[in-house]
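Researcher: I'm preparing a figure for a lab meeting and need a structural model of a single chain. I don't have an experimental structure, so a prediction will have to do for now. The sequence is pasted below. Please return the structure as tokens so I can convert it later.
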Amino acid sequence: MNIAVILAGGSGTRLGGALPKQFLQAAGKTLLEHSIEAFERHPGIDEIAVVIRKDFIAEVEAIVQRNRYQKVRKILPGGKERHDSSLAAIRAYTDDDDRLLLHDAVRPLVSQRIISDCLAALCNYRAVAVAVKTTDTIYQVDEEGCIRAIPPRSTLRNAQTPQGFNRGTISQAYRLALQDPLFTTTDDCGVVSRYLPQEPIYVVEGEAGNIKVTFKEDLPLVERLLRER
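Model: Understood. Here is the structure written out token by token.
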């Protein structure tokens, strides 16, 4: 199966407010609803799982019922860290041939083209990232804050989501990672890259509009783009 996993377990502390940012409204719906609906309407997606903090499961159940989403089959409790939420979804499925698309709930503008390209790439690769070309010069600095290196921009990309995996591949990468006492990550492709270095990770071209809502200043732009769409 092609399974979309909506990662909505974050607390959204950088945005402020009582609700996690995935429940903020934009263009008449929550960011979470917009993200779910992108995968709900894609014909290549067989099933959707939402990973959410345990104390917000009831809210997600109400959203699914209100919108009559047909593909949302699992609502899973997330953990303290982002990788705990990824692991909750990985462990919820048992077929290593399943393909998982892990997507941030606060990227509500993911396009049908990006989803299609990820699914197509997973026919040839077992790990897929989405990214856009870096437009700014990037400095690598040392512990004292001085420039150590300036990587060429042509080799750099800004990561987006979804990130796609053969379920067996991402499961194996995490199995190795959890044996490492120094393991830490904020990125699932990074887990594959570090613990399965022989596994190629194909990069699908992202889009400037595939914005992640991180700060309050992001919301007006997302609102405008959603209404235009």
